[in-house]
Amino acid sequence: MRPFIAALLTVLFFGCSGGVVYKDAPALEFAQFDYGFTSHSRAVRGINVSYMDEGSGPQTLVLVHGLASNGGFWRYNIAELSRHYRVIAVDLPGYGKSDKGVYPYTMSFYADVVSGLLTQLGVGKVTYIGHSMGGQIGIHFSFRHPEQLERLILAAPAGLEPFSRGDGDWLKSVMTIDFVKKTPEDRIRANLALNFYNYSEKYEWMVEERTRMAKGAEFEDFCYAVVRSVHGMLDEPTTKKLSQITVPTHLIFGENDGLIPNPILHGGSAKDVAKIGTDAIPSVTLNFIPSAGHMLQIEQPEAFNAIIKEIVK
Fold first, then answer.
1. Which string of DSSP letters, residue by residue, matches the chain?
2. Rg for the chain, CA atoms, rounded
3. What are the residue boundaries of the structural domains of the chain, listed by start?
4. In this structure, are residues 267 and 261 in contact, taking their beta carbons and an 8 Å threshold?
5. How far apart are CA 231 and CA 227, in angstroms?
6. pTM to 2 decimals?
7. Are the C-beta atoms of residues 135 and 158 closer than 8 Å to each other?
8. How far apart are the first and last CA of the chain?
9. CA dist list (Å): 274 to 64, 224, 271, 288
10. Peptide bond connecting 261 to the previous residue in cis, omega within 30 degrees of 0
């Protein structure tokens, strides 16, 4: 049973502990993460929310990361996109340099935090770009804060694929803080590779980050956020609400996404999930990026950036 659970959790998050290459490396505190861009912070709902704010222009793009990641996962996109637009890349509460604590970690909670940050920054309508879990948050954002939204771009999003109550109950039963904490470095690397069509050593910064932050003071709080975020996705499903999206919506998938749909519980291909979206969302376009897995914005940044610029233009 143990290998099966490990395989399942692979499709949910990257592990975060121990190591082979980085086992003797010093701890990496979340505040020390180097995204390549300056981080700022604002208090939203009593939570210090970290974000990057680059570029300028008539349109603002808000980039929202997925489960167990952070704003640094947009590092291959920010520089190019900020040449044309104002780009705000957020660390969600519980992740990256933002505060970690006993927060709701629901999708609506995250949507309200992003909304509050934009209000504090005096930003008008935005193009919301969400990856994976960030996509499901974006769907809730479109329901709760449509007045702040110009368009919705969902990259390999959660929230389209349906999960039965039994699926959800089982996922919750195996997703524990202790399980997250004990993922060793070799499993981190193997899990990470499944997010790519062609994994290479240039993505080792993710393995190092995951391994070294396990020694940090806030690591257990991060693991709590990961576990509760999974509960949040399952407890606030959006599959049956897609027809309620009222803004222009754009779906982007990697042709070789191995994590959507869930390969253990459901099987099939990303095209099956994309069809759910195109059938239900009133105003929608669809793009597939060749030779790209789940981390399409990292694996094929030039193609991803080009699609974003074309959509926004």
1. -HHHHHHHHHTT-------SSSTTSPP--GGG---SS-EEEEEETTEEEEEEEE--SSSEEEEE--TT--GGGGHHHHHHHTTTSEEEEE--TTSTTS--SS----HHHHHHHHHHHHHHTT--SEEEEEETHHHHHHHHHHHH-GGGEEEEEEES-SSSS---HHHHHHHHHH--HHHHHT--HHHHHHHHHTT-SS--GGGHHHHHHHHHHTTSTTHHHHHHHHHHHHHHHHHS--GGGGGG--S-EEEEEETT-SSSS-TTTT-S-HHHHHHHHHHH-SSEEEEEETT--S-HHHHSHHHHHHHHHHHH-
2. 18
3. 2-312
4. yes
5. 7
6. 0.93
7. yes
8. 50
9. 20, 30, 5, 10
10. yes
In order along its 313 residues, the chain shows pLDDT tens digits of 333 344 444 433 333 333 468 878 999 999 999 999 999 999 999 999 999 999 999 999 999 999 999 999 999 999 999 999 999 999 999 999 999 999 999 999 999 999 999 999 999 999 999 999 999 999 999 999 999 999 999 999 999 999 998 888 878 888 888 878 878 888 889 889 999 999 999 999 999 999 999 999 999 999 999 999 999 999 999 999 999 999 999 999 999 999 999 887 888 999 999 999 999 999 999 999 999 999 999 999 999 999 999 999 8
How many whole angstroms separate alpha carbon 147 and alpha carbon 112? 13
What is the four-CA torsion angle of 71, 265, 304, 223, rounded to 10 degrees? 10
Strand partners, 129: 63, 153
Quick one: tokens of 36? 């390549």
**Architecture of the domain defined by 2-312:** 3-Layer(aba) Sandwich (3.40)
Structure tokens at 222: 């991060």
Task: State residue 124 phi and psi, 5-degree precision.
Answer: -85, -140
118 residue type, one letter: L
